[in-house]
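Lab notebook, bench 4. The sequencing result for the construct came back, and we need a structural model before the next group meeting so we can plan mutations. Quick request posted to the team channel:

Model the 3D structure of this chain.
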Amino acid sequence: MNTAEVALEPSTPIAVQPATAPSGASTGRLDRRYVTAYLVILILAAILRVTRMVITSDDTFYPDEVFQLLEQAHRFAFGYGFVPWEFQIGLRSWLLPGMLGLILKGLDYLHLGTPEVYVPVVGFLSFAFSMTLVEAARRTADRLGGPLAGLFAAFSVAFYTASAAAALKMTPEVMAGYALAWALCFSLGSGSRSAWLAGVMIGLTAGLRVHYAPALVGLVITAYLYRNRNVGETLRLIVAAAATFLAFGILDWITWGLPFQSYIFAVWANVGKGVAASISVQPWSDYLTTFGFGSLALILAAFDFRRTWPALLVALLILLPHTLLAHKEPRFVFGMHEPTLVALAVFVAGRATAPRPSRLPLVAVALCIVIYAIRGLVVMALDPPYHAVLGRDIGAAVAEVRRQPSPAGLSVLTVHWGWFPGYYRLHMPIPVTFHKKPLTSVDQVDPGIDYVVVDFRNPVPAGFTFMNTYGTVSLWRVDHPRQALASGPSTAIPLDFSWDRGLHEVWQD
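Done. Here's the predicted structure in token form:
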């Protein structure tokens, strides 16, 4: 067995130059070293992600992640929860919320349907999905540049800050990034089986993040060229991709009443009505500067274009179209990170196994990635984003409310609704209200509310009993709560999450 056979599914693609065994090393010894090194990488990847989870305490603080994913899963499973405007008009697919909702339903059937159980279960699933990205990177880089490139790609994905930070999240962008990584891997394979799998992954990526369509077209072209222009295998890939994406359209038909409604409405809202641009507008270069390391990696990998072009093509076909969009968020381009690191690994491994090899680039880039990861952990531990801290603190206050005997209602005052963890964490069918104005009188509290969460910097008037402070917020009990009216708020509160931007007017046009 030669070293090229270390890959799990070896193939002979165009322009790939597999590395050769070092002089004097037996192939059996090299194989054992390879497996040992890869196991160490997997262990380090797991440790890094668990460490981040411990440091951040709660990594589900992003409003879209809470209200458009976890909250909808809870509403599906238990029948009550907030309904953001996207789910009022049918602008989001039910695939991920529905799948998570089924998991919550299953746990509830086993009498385990509480946040103390289902939150760790969902967190473990997110962690497990994130580890597959390491394996996808290893296989892809192995096929492009040999075993050393595969190990270095796995190492890079294991430590790269963006991939580690997303390890406890299951948003559509993150899940699309995982599917895209495997789509690239299977596209570089050979045979009907890998063609079918590549197609399924391409269709899954399109359904989760249709904005990646240019990169998916690039993958189809890549598969056609890498398979020596095999029309039959390419057609199988296209059929599998179309069938998988069609399933998303059928799901929309079942849940919203119109095939592909969530995609049609998303284009109508963001392009036709300019909703995304009304949220924020960033310069075209924002992603290039935000991910400066990745931008440099793409430039370096281009020097070995003969071997790195498949990964480069995917990364650039995500990055470049997204630079044209006015509203930019780092999560939107999550899918570019894995192919970027794969391309960089192939380039660096090529320098280390060249006729005049140099280990310096390999060591230097590895150190940069490790320092980058450690810096991210230190910053998160010593100076975490305010919204992450706020979400964690409100979550602690909500957990305390759950421990109280028969609470009737909760109000979040002087704190933005976006950082509330939803009924997903509260898990009690009681009314929840939000008010931005500071408290001046207990009469401001809605009828039926007996607990309030307040920004700790805001004074609290008479009529409340202090319970505890949780970092940035404090929890108070209303001394004499007013009785709720018979027509009080429903537990399935329809909350228009665009109220503070005036976007509700858009839907009335």
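Residues 3-57+114-382 form one domain.
Will bring this to the meeting.
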